[in-house]
Fold:
Amino acid sequence: MIFKKVIFFNFREIKDCSSLNITDALLTNEDSVVVLDFFPHQFSDCVLEIDENSDFLIKAEKLELKR
Structure:
């Protein structure tokens, strides 16, 4: 994945806790902004929602996928 024109990038690693063990991720396009949240809010009915305070969140104007 290649993010173009990154608007926001947040990667926060907490001591003694791995931020690289990802169990869920949410990819959306809201108002022409691509949002990838690696730690979204999780609800019991399998619904994911963007967490603006996520430890790993990227927002960009464009996302390209390469093989």
The chain has one domain: 2-14+22-64. The first strand starts at residue 2 and ends at 11.
